[in-house]
What we know:
The complex is a heterodimer. By secondary structure, chain A is of the alpha/beta class. Chain A contains eleven helices and five strands; from the N terminus they run H-H-H-H-H-H-H-E-E-H-E-H-E-H-E-H. In chain A, helix 2 (13-27) packs across helix 4, helix 2 (13-27) crosses helix 6 and helix 8 (172-188) runs parallel beside helix 9 (206-221). Chain A is rod-shaped, with a radius of gyration of 31 Å. Chain B has a single domain (4-131), classed as Heat Shock Protein 90 (2-Layer Sandwich), CATH 3.30.565.10. Chain B is 39% helix and 32% strand. Chain B has helices at residues 12-29, 33-54, 86-89, 103-110, and strands at residues 4-9, 57-66, 69-78, 113-119, 123-131. A five-stranded antiparallel β-sheet of chain B has the order 1-2-3-5-4, covered by helices on one side. In chain B, helix 1 (12-29) packs antiparallel against helix 2 (33-54). The longest helix of chain B is centred in the N-terminal third of the chain and has 22 residues, at 33-54. The A-B interface holds A 169, 171-172, 202-207, 209-210, 213, 233-235, 237-238, 241-244 and B 12-13, 16, 19, 33-34, 36-38, 40-41, 44-45, 48, 92, 99-100, 102-103, 105-106, 109-110.
Amino acid sequence: MNQIVFTFITHSRDYMLEEWMNLMKENADERLINVVSNEMFVQTSAEFIDMIISNTRRNNEEFASKLSDFAEKVVRLGWPLSFIIEGLHKFTLVVINGMVMKEQVTKDNQMEIIYDLDKWTSPMKQEIISIYTQTWERTVSLQKMALQELSAPLIPVIEGITIMPLIGTIDTERAKQIMENLLTGVVKQRSEVVLIDITGVPVVDTMVAHHIIQAAEAVRLVGAKCMICGIRPEIAQTIVSLGINLNEIVTKNSLKKGIDAALDWTNRKITKVEE
Amino acid sequence: MEFQSCVKIINEWDIVAARQLGRNVAKELGFGTVDQARITTAISELARNIYLYAGRGSVCIEKEYVNGKSGMKIIASDEGPGIQDIRKVMEDGYTTSGGLGAGLPGVRRLMDEFDIDSFPSKGTKVTAIKWIR
């Protein structure tokens, strides 16, 4: 790196930190100001500037570990990526402005200095972006896994009676999984009656209804009876308005009523034991 | 136009985003739970149509104030293949995708006003309004 730039950056840390924070606060959006306290902002900003400066010392290993620590921290704090990239850009501006003020930039060396700064900040930018996206990708894939885990359990309650509670939005992938779990489970557990509870499904549109109808039909084909429970009044009204035909399927408004009916179908009932 | 917000429909999860937006606006406007369910279901149908048939498009929500009535307008538009025979898709049970064929006629019944415009190979625009009773 150019010697003048290097000396400037390593010797005017406090000046740059202050200038940079002022610039960033001017442009920061409210979202960030709301989530980050002032102390936190000052502390993290100092860390950011120190990190950038440490990169001039050409100790790549130290820089890399500092950078990933920093990126992890800002991701946890909820700083947007755009803010960090903006920050890096502003930092370059601060350096150039500072050097112009000190009259270290002349007509002869200005292009060289700008190229130099660019060469120095570009890899940093790349690295920050890639750490950010890695973190996001990881979060997304973990959440996808978590979602799949709570997808569609089939729960045996009493011999011959099983319940599948559905919670959340049903998309094509989940619908497939529901069908698979339902059929393998019914056969494995030798269920006579399966209750599908849709209390936790926020919207029942034609696609969801279609999948439920198909599931019920498939359960019938493997020799069990199927019942849909937990149809809330507003869902009932929308199903009627949509003109969806659920006549072939037994429906109940609550899981309790469904279990009562299921016991009835299997010729059983729950009684209190006399002491 | 006082208020408009849009959700782009590109993948299946955008349907959920559109629905969520609709539910929030409906709640804000003071619709009851049954009407909220109707509105969200209608948005779900329209957004799914975009996703299934056009691939991409957008769902916009507007607040409507006319003659002292207030309501909510849903505009679902895309630049997809368009609908060949509108009369046919408005019939119950007509489907080209193996579904129930209740989507568009269902939306018409769920909402108070309904309008559909479609040009083959140019795109489709569905506008539907629900008034607060």
